[in-house]
Fold this protein.
Amino acid sequence: MKIAVYGKAFALEFDDAVKHILRRVEALDPHALVESGFLRMLNDRMTLSDQLKPFEAHHELKGYDLLIAIGGDGTILESATLVRDTEIPVLGVNTGRLGFLSNVGIEEIDLAMDALAAGRVWYERRALLHVEVDDMELGEFPYALNEIAIMKRDTSSMVAVEVYRDDAYVNNYWADGLIVSTATGSTAYSLSAGGPIVMPGSNVLCINPVAPHNLNNRPLIVPSEGRLELVAEGRENQFLLSLDSRMFILDGGRKVRVTTAPFQFILINLEHQEFFSTVRAKMHWGIDPRDR
């Protein structure tokens, strides 16, 4: 089994647990790769085996069987820029807070590593969005796993976003911004903006205005096939376009085209994990708030 590891900064209290993860990784793959920036941070905080080798770019992961992402959900989103269309599955170990995607807790490390070695895991395919903008470059990875959003740049006037689906006019949203989320992203920014929770695997997108001027503008669920076109206008002529955590300056009047990507992100789950139990745990459903 060929394993790569990616991660972000974590609290000092997780040092021993992360070191244990790397020992377990090395037992499965003595020549495992660790993303260079993460490896430098680890070497500053702990003593690691010399067998672990750094990698710099996504193409170095060709032929690998697994990427372990250590961090929160943001780390999982960034790992999508590494695995891209290779179909390398990702296991998320949560050293963050909520963790809908990074769903293996620190206390489950040994369980997860034993399950990987024995093949007792299941794989879940998640859709991504492909984004194109007229006369604008969006980097090497113009895709989003959670959502794309168009937002105003400051605290002044609103942004007006016209939305079309397959050339059919949908609406003109006057708001602080507009989110188009996948089912995966329904538990992220869209949820904070009042959007619905959508079960992964549902082939739908959620169009969700942020703080809309007209209160009767509510989140809208549409099929994921087809094409969405978004055009932003406002008193200001520049806006923010985000693809997950990656930000770009968007000029007013430019057409933003959103379609479903031709490849999917593969998330590894342990045998006992499924969506509803994760939501109940993360959202504290069924728990009397007085008992927390």
Q: What stands out?
A: The chain has two domains: 3-119, 128-262.
